[in-house]
Design goal:
5 helices; 26% helix; disordered N terminus; alpha+beta; globular
């Protein structure tokens, strides 16, 4: 049983990939090779949180490991256990993320789920992420989960190789801009995902490969590598 205590408007990190144990620590302290931000609760392979929902005082979620929910073929950059995106949106996003990796080395992956209907820990092996001693830590995993409409839908697992390009404040601002229940209600969860992914890609494709603020929308296809 994994247990995560959520404190309103505080930031905590939980770090654990083995044995099911979790250790709580400050977001500013060292927590291995993974820094993970999320809003509502821990429900998948990652282990950390950014808490911004005062209505949720605690969460107790069982760990999940279901490789049967993963695609049978390797190489999918966008996995939809929960169909938040249309086929066209998912295909375009998958192509964009493939091109991003080829051009910059940054790996951005998207998992759409509805806990407990999630592959959970199994995505680590499928995407080859977050392993001890792993040198390729330039990865970002966006996990999209509505959690019954009680929290921010955008949750991020960020490798150490990304934290200087996109520091903590960028992720909190990105969550606040596109992941809120208000934005999803007014614009749809698909637009929340698309806008978040395009913002990340645009930042990683700038000359400096650095962002603190979330870019405005209306960017050109060229700036997204398309």
């Amino acid at each position: 049983m994994n247990i995560l205590i959520l404190l309103p408007l505080t930031i905590t990190c939980v770090s654990a990939f083995s044995g099911g144990a979790m250790k709580m620590s400050s977001v500013h302290s060292s927590s291995g090779r993974r820094t993970f931000f999320k809003t509502a609760s821990a429900s998948f392979f990652a282990v950390g949180s950014f808490v911004a929902s005062p209505s949720i005082s605690s969460a107790r979620l069982d760990p999940v490991n279901r490789p049967d929910l993963l695609p049978t073929e390797p190489g999918a950059n966008v996995i939809q256990i929960e169909k938040f995106l249309t086929k066209g949106q998912a295909k375009r996003m998958d192509d964009m993320l493939l091109k991003l990796e080829q051009d910059t080395g940054f790996r951005l992956r998207v998992l759409c789920q509805s806990y407990p209907n999630t592959p959970g820990l199994a995505v680590r092996d499928y995407w080859d992420l977050g392993k001890e001693g792993q040198k390729d830590d330039k990865y970002i995993v966006l996990v999209v989960d509505q959690f019954g409409g009680k929290g921010n839908v955008l949750n991020f697992n960020v490798g150490e190789g990304v934290k200087f390009a996109l520091p903590n404040v960028f992720w909190t601002r990105l969550q606040g801009k596109y992941g809120s229940t208000f934005f999803v209600k007014e614009n749809g969860i698909d637009l929340a995902i698309v806008n978040a992914v395009e913002s990340i890609v645009q930042c990683l494709r700038t000359e400096d490969q650095f962002c603190v603020n979330v870019p405005d929308q209306g960017v050109s296809m060229k700036s997204l590598g398309l």
